[in-house]
Amino acid sequence: MEKTNKFETNHLLSLIIKMSIPSIFSMLIQSMYNIVDSIFVAKIGTEALTAVSIAFPIQNLILALTVGFGTGLNAFLSRKLGSKDNEEANQAATQGIFTSLLHYLLVVVLGLVFAKPFMALFSDDALTLSLGYEYISVIFLFSFGVFIHITIEKVYQASGNMIAPMIFQLVGSLVNIILDPILIFGWFGLPSMGIRGAAIATVIGQLSSMCLAILFFKKGHMPINFVFKNFKWSKSLTRELYYNSIPSFLLLSIGSIMVSGINLILATISQVGVLIFGIYYKVQSFVFMPINGIVQGTLPIMSYNYGAKNTSRLQESLKLSVILAEIFSVIGTIIFLLFSKEIISLFSTDQTVLTIGEQALKIIALNFCFASIGYVFTSYFQATGKQFSSVCLILIRQLILLLPMAFILSHFFGIAGIWWAFVLTEAVCVGLSFWLYRRKR
User: Fold this and answer.
1) Using 50, 70 and 90 to split pLDDT, how confident is the model at 368?
2) Which tens digits make up the pLDDT trace of 307-343?
3) For residue 440, is pLDDT > 70?
4) pLDDT class for 251, splitting at 50, 70, 90?
5) Range of 91's domain?
6) What transmembrane ranges does the database entry give (predicted)?
7) 400: Cβ–Cβ under 8 A, 6 or more apart, which residues?
8) Which of 147, 195, 159 is nearest to 43 (CA)?
């Protein structure tokens, strides 16, 4: 039980850092891939970069389903380890794999039916839509790799092993980055595949992570195991796993709905705005991925100590998580304020894009310090079984308050009003987070 005992015995700050660093590192590598991928795609043409931006919400929904369910599974497994119920943890892990495969089949069916009409909402350019569907169809047809990989990754994290998930992410991202220019531009005698090459590089990277995760799990010694022999589906466990997954799924999937809603508002003002928001959503991951790494590192610690009824250690974990997340937020804000023009110029040399993009990054960057607190409290409520509070925060942050505010402010201040809506929404949600925390203690 050494790997689980550290959640209740090790020095908290060093434990959180050790648990978070692998996630932060792997997420930064993933962010690097997103940026490099966009830079290569931009060299195909403006239509290709716009197509990827339009397809991004669909890609993000797939990620929301995988990571959302996986994070809920992570929290559930950590609580079971904290209460010493390893048999239930094994059952949950096994059912989690089968559930993820069902999710994959759902993604394929919905993708085939709705991808084209969805993308048509944001552009009437035939080339852009054709490129977008060519890209996203490859992604959802081969997404089983990411479903299996993420599920195994979350089982490792629930057990306290953050190194293996980092290796899975690192290998997949590096494979992706290496293959991107080779397949897009047809290096080494291969045919030039354009935007389809970018999609193929992505799925090969995901499949590489999946194969490595399966190999590690078969050779490793874990306190949690997949038990396929005499497996029986449990309806009550299904309800429990989905209940635990709701906050994380909403946090990620509503992000896709939010992106789509913002794009619809931007499309009425400027098509350039849609492109810039797509760029922002790529580069902001360099700030939020480290914060998410801290959240992922502390989630099993908080869940375990909640299950073990160690209240003081639970509260100290929350405090340290907020402090560490704020450090990354401040650094991210400073970088965006000082180097906004240089960041945008990585993707375009068009003067209109540079001018509007520089303004956008400088304004939206002001929301980082507020948003990081909301991320941490959403995770805390999830770890302690207070799913309703998590859901409220997520809905208000990304739908209930943000979209109406963006719509209203855009009529008064134009495109700048949309960027300010992010800042004001996150500021309001900080106050709501503290109120819910004091109310639920």
Assistant:
1) very high
2) 778 888 888 989 999 999 999 999 999 999 999 988 8
3) no
4) low
5) 2-440
6) 12-33, 53-77, 97-115, 135-152, 164-188, 194-217, 249-280, 286-306, 318-339, 359-378, 390-412, 418-437
7) none
8) 195
In the chain, the amino acid numbered 106 is L
Q: 351: how many CB neighbours lie within 10 A of its CB? A: 8
Would you state the pLDDT for residue 4? Answer: 46
pLDDT at 58 over 70: yes
Q: How many CB atoms lie within 10 A of CB 352?
A: 12
Q: What is the mean pLDDT of the chain?
A: 83
Residue length, the chain? 441
**pLDDT tens-digit series, residues 29-41:** 766 766 777 778 7
Count Cα neighbours of 51 within 13 Å in the Cβ-side half-sphere. 27
Q: What is the 3-state secondary structure (H, E, C) of the chain?
A: CHHHHHHHHCCHHHHHHHHHHHHHHHHHHHHHHHHHHHHHHHHHCHHHHHHHHHHHHHHHHHHHHHHHHHHHHHHHHHHHHHCCCHHHHHHHHHHHHHHHHHHHHHHHHHHHHHHHHHHCCCCCCHHHHHHHHHHHHHHHHCCHHHHHHHHHHHHHHHCCCCHHHHHHHHHHHHHHHHHHHHHHHCCCCCCCCHHHHHHHHHHHHHHHHHHHHHHHHHHCCCCCCCCCCCCCCCHHHHHHHHHHHHHHHHHHHHHHHHHHHHHHHHHCCCHHHHHHHHHHHHHCHHHHHHHHHHHHHHHHHHHHHHHCCCHHHHHHHHHHHHHHHHHHHHHHHHHHHHHHHHHHHCCCCCHHHHHHHHHHHHHHHHHHHHHHHHHHHHHHHHHCCCHHHHHHHHHHHHHHCHHHHHHHHHHHHCHHHHHHHHHHHHHHHHHHHHHHHHHHC
Number of domains in the chain: 1
The predicted model scores a pTM of: 0.65
For residue range 79-127, what is the model confidence (pLDDT) as tens digits? 777 777 677 778 788 888 888 889 899 989 988 888 888 888 877 788 8
- Under 8 Å between Cβ of 69 and 96: yes
Structure tokens that stand for 398 in this block: 């990304």
Residue 247 pLDDT exceeds 80? no
